[in-house]
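quick one if you have a minute, typing this from the bus. below you get a single protein, a line of residues and a line of whole numbers that encode the local backbone shape. could you go over both lines and see whether the tokens make sense for that sequence. anything you notice is useful, everything is just below.
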Amino acid sequence: MNLRLIGIGAGVLIILTLPLAGAIAGPDFTARDDAKGGGLLTTLGLSEPSGRPSAVRVAPPGPPEQPRTDAHCGPELSSPQGVEAQTCVLTGEGQSWGRSYYRNTSGRVLESVLTLMGPAGRTVQIRCAIGAGDEPGLCETPHEKSLGPADRYTAVAEFAVPDTEGPLLLRSGSNSPGPSGG
């Protein structure tokens, strides 16, 4: 009876390993010919009927190409109260917008007012609630049609405690001067 189980087990093992052996060896696409005289590569349009690879290559489709976005950013700033921010003007595909990257370690909920100022007195402003956590976040204005080159735009973000007349905790701008040595 043990001999019979060993024989069945060996048969099952052979049957299970055949697909694995074929996968490891891999197919030989160039050596096989189909009924049309070409082979798999010819059928897929990847080689000439003579067996030579064709000049046309088929590439698998990838993700759509992302539009180019240029950023003009001020320096990373931080306040003694625990707010860190960097503010940028972004441009791409004929549009401009402001974006502020921040981190709030102050332990309290804050509010940010992000303003994008452009040519001809155009201004776009948005208010963003800033949670009381250490997680980084961003605040972004709506995208607007660009009315000139990126260097004609400026973005400023101001961080403060909401609904109070308290002090401004941090102001960050896209054209803020960097810290000067002294």
Remarks:
- The first strand starts at residue 70 and ends at 73.
- Residues 70-173 form a domain with the Immunoglobulin-like fold (CATH 2.60.40).
